[in-house]
Amino acid sequence: MNDQSKPYSDYTVLSGDSRKGAISKTFMASVFTWMFVALGVSAIMAYAFASNETLMGYLRGENGMTTLGLVVMFAPLVFVFLMSLGYNRLSAPAMTGVFLLYAVVNGISFSFILQAYTAGSVIGCFASASAMFGIMAIMGYTTNQDLTNFGRIMMMGVIGIVIAMIINMFLGSERMDYIISIIGVAVFTGLTAYDVQKLKYIGMGIEQEGLPAVDVKKASVFGALNLYLDFIMIFMFLLRLFGGRRD
Predict the structure, then answer these.
(1) Distance (Å, whole) CA 210 – CA 220
(2) What element of type H or E holds 65?
(3) Fewest CB atoms within 10 A around its CB: which of 19, 47, 141, 234?
């Protein structure tokens, strides 16, 4: 890793018999810890707002979405771009703070989902997403097959999904929405394996070259962001496919 300050997604996958020791495993453990912390924060905030009419009143009024509600809906995109584009400038504490704040705001936006779908379907889709994510994470970590080209194909799939969703905003086709959701589940499930493998090799690279603790912390938080997004997108697309809406 010649540039120690760039996001992990810019690193080249290492090859050969790189040893997987304590530092590499500690890095991976840190990534998953931050991911689970973010998911926990989002879940708590989603439940808190969905179950409290006073809090929901700040997001949705008699005439529809409030200004705060609109901000909450679109702010998560801003946080993702901030962490991605500002990686080199943000300190490790700042990166961590932005990530946790993103989890909070994202969780608040999920309160709309909890009110739109039945509790049983939300729990079922969450469990399914957890199982799919877990299986692909294990596969990505244990496989000896280089997933770099596979990951590029998945990223092209993400671009295609975004374009298709924008087009369908005008078409309003339920069939197209169904197809997009199926492809979305497949793409982000595949990306999970790719991202986990890439993180594994970065951990091995950290062990070989030795990075400052601050850079390791930033890399682990940024890696957690990517896995968090993979999981959330799997969950969201499963809800679009199988979620039961409230009457």
Answers:
(1) 14
(2) strand 64-65
(3) 19
Helix (H) or strand (E) holding 60: strand 60-61
The answer to whether residue 61 sits within a structural domain is yes
Q: Which residues pair with 65 in a beta bridge?
A: 60
Q: How many domains does the chain have?
A: 1
Cβ neighbour number for residue 239 with a 10 Å cutoff: 22
Amino acid at 224: A
Burial class (CB in 10 A: 0-12, 13-18, 19+), 27: buried
Domain assignment present for 172: yes
- Residue 89 domain-assigned (yes or no): yes
From residue 103, alpha-carbon distances to 59, 75, 80, 114 in Å are 17, 11, 10, 16
Domain annotation covers residue 236? yes
- pLDDT by residue for the chain (247 residues), tens only, comes to 334 344 444 444 444 444 446 777 888 899 999 999 999 999 999 999 888 888 888 887 777 778 787 877 777 778 788 887 877 788 888 889 989 999 999 999 888 888 888 888 889 999 999 999 999 999 999 988 889 899 899 999 999 998 999 998 888 888 899 999 999 999 999 999 999 999 988 888 776 766 666 677 888 998 999 999 999 999 999 998 887 887 6
Q: 84-87 long-range contacts, Cβ below 8 Å, gap at least 24?
A: 84/7, 87/5, 87/6, 87/7, 87/218, 87/222
Q: What does the alpha-carbon distance between residue 11 and residue 234 come to, in Å, rounded to a whole number?
A: 25
**pTM exceeds cut of 0.90:** no
Structure tokens at 101: 């704040």
